[in-house]
Amino acid sequence: MQATHALIRKTDFPAIERSSLDILQINLGYRCNQTCRHCHVNAGPARFEEMDAETADLVLDVLKTRQIRTLDITGGAPELNPHFRTLVRQARDAGARVVDRCNLTVLFEHGQEDTARFLADHAVEITASMPCYSKGNVDEQRGQGAFEKSIAALQALNALGYGRQNSGLALNLVYNPLGPTLPPGQHELEMDYRRELAEKFGIEFSRLFVLTNMPIQRFGSRLISKGQFSRYMELLRSSFSAVNLDSVMCRTLVSVDWQGFLYDCDFNQMLEKPLRLAGAQGRPHLRHLLRDDWELSAVNTADHCYGCTAGQGSSCAGALAA
Question: How many structural domains comprise the chain?
Fold first, then answer.
């Protein structure tokens, strides 16, 4: 795989000042049952890094001590981590909103047969990868058979109440472009998704999030191999919108890797660009957030940050601008 670190390190991206810490986004590991072409984590079945019980306990300690309102759980496929359910239960017991970033097909893996029911029982918000409503595009990006499994998973979640009006069970879908382009307008595409999924499969969902592909890890490597990296970066830079700076997710979020180390976002985690934490001795870790002598400094930026601020903007909760 061709690394993009050196190509994006030098940057003139504007400084981003942090606000309050509202979201703890934890990556439970890079093991996944899929190997998606657009994956910025380079996750897959051959990855074995995963968060251990001690680090999971630290996550819960920080969540409760700092009274953080949202625990956002990602991976890999986070459900494959043996401590996933403990984290969900205890975070919900502490009153936190819990988001599971689910690839849908994991619900058919061995040992996951009751995962959908578990998520519903604990009112976990599901944000599910669904890069298109057509079979060809989904299978091209995520692997043969991914579309049929994704549709079956969505139907099963609907049967539990997910995505249904007034059910209290949010089911959000995530769109990523297939190639080096910006995503279309979120509102317009959501209308297309609703029509196609309802008419063909009887599927309902809560919201659609559109995300810009980041020029790092697997997607960035593909851009380099096809000679498209410079052109894509120019697209991101030329589409920069300063209005998005006030809404980027890194202002209120801290990303935690499987070992407990801290970053401004999941993308910086993949680039090994640590959080800047005033008062921390050594590499910033969850343990530092249990002390009172720390202060979040400005976001550690690089050229990939143009991906979050291009056009309508992009974050873990979709487009930033209306």
Answer: 1
